[in-house]
Amino acid sequence: MTNxxxxxxxxxxxxxxxxxxxxLIDLVEPLSDGQLLELADGIHEMxxxxxxxxxxxxxxxxxRARHSLDLRI
Length: 73
Hints:
This protein has three helices and no strands. By secondary structure, it is an all-alpha fold. The chain has a domain of 41 residues.
């Protein structure tokens, strides 16, 4: 588990995630290579969007903190 995964809880326990992973592998097994790649691209895009949103949020929070500090000086 990465540091990012430890700080961002998805609500799934390790055993639940392992079960989900096994079920997903069973479901995607019959897909063609092209279909599987398309599915992976969609999941990757969702991950990129989540990371961009988190980055944007962190930047806004840092900007607010800087402005509040500037007002006190």
